[in-house]
TrEMBL record:
Family: Belongs to the NadD family.
Biological process terms in GO annotation: NAD+ biosynthetic process
InterPro entries, alphabetized: Cyt_trans-like (IPR004821), NadD/NMNAT (IPR005248), Rossmann-like_a/b/a_fold (IPR014729)
Endpoints of the signal sequence: none
Protein name in the entry: Probable nicotinate-nucleotide adenylyltransferase
Described purpose of this protein according to its UniProt entry: Catalyzes the reversible adenylation of nicotinate mononucleotide (NaMN) to nicotinic acid adenine dinucleotide (NaAD).
CDD domains: NMNAT (cd02165)
Top-level lineage group: Bacteria
């Protein structure tokens, strides 16, 4: 099976992520998409990150009805911060029957040279890239490992959602109903002074 791995902090998972996962799972040669929740992205500060179990739970709630999308907790068992090449190596050894590919935005592709062992990544794994506004993909179109897609875009971010919740503004439709319910019930992303 050809599996596309979509890595992220998913703090929280939002409609922008879901459109990408759904497009990759249903409109490309990938058979399935695994959403890999990263406890700690090596290039980002861990501040503002809620507990990884809550992020994982929201990713599961958002995708529980999606036949071709699953959530992976593999990085919870691996050393931190989470380096993508280490996770890919671990998964490829554990599931030799699968071909693992990466799903990545054009923004990430531009900074890939800062990633651990990026040359190995580009040599051994196919990367399904989706466009991001302002990020030119011309230099990559001929690369043998890169598959440029025309994934539709929804330009929202998890930062926007966290700020909206902290400011008591609605995020309905920006996240799935079940995720919204989870955020409200657990009081996630609220200002410390407002928490029950
Ligand atoms: N609206 C979006 N459209 C396409 N890609 C996105 C979108 N939001 C996030 N991504 C990409 O999805 C991956 C995982 O996202 P991540 O969990 O870091 O969410 P984020 O919304 O970018 O978070 P934050 O605002 O906290 O930085 C990253 O590669 C990120 O660039
Ligand atoms: O392996 C690396 O060196 C590496 C460096 C930066 C980011 N990543 C992975 O890419 C994922 C998305 O990154 P970001 O910065 O767009 O949120 C993140 O969750 C990490 O798993 C991986």
């Amino acid at each position: 099976m050809k599996i596309g791995l979509f890595f992220g902090s998913f703090n929280p998972i939002h409609t922008g992520h879901l459109i990408i996962a759904s497009y990759m799972a249903n409109y490309t040669e990938l058979d399935k998409v695994w959403l890999v929740v990263s406890p700690h992205n090596p290039l980002k500060e861990a501040t503002g990150l809620i507990h990884v179990h809550d992020r994982l739970e929201m990713a599961k709630l958002a995708t529980e009805d999606a036949e071709r999308i699953t959530v992976s907790d593999v990085e919870l068992k691996l050393p931190r911060p989470s380096y993508t090449i280490d996770t890919l190596t671990y998964l490829s050894e554990k599931y030799p029957q699968h071909e693992f590919c990466l799903i990545m935005g054009a923004d990430n592709l531009r900074s890939i040279k800062k990633w651990k062992n990026y040359e190995t990544l580009l040599k051994f794994y196919k990367i399904f890239v989706y466009p991001r506004p302002g990020f030119d993909l011309t230099e990559w179109t001929q690369h043998p490992s890169i598959i440029v897609t025309t994934t539709p875009q929804m330009e929202i971010s998890a930062t926007f959602i966290r700020n909206a919740v902290a400011g008591n503004q609605s995020v309905r439709y920006f996240v799935s109903d079940k995720v919204l319910d989870f955020i409200e019930k657990k009081g996630l992303y609220r200002k410390a002074s407002e928490k029950k």
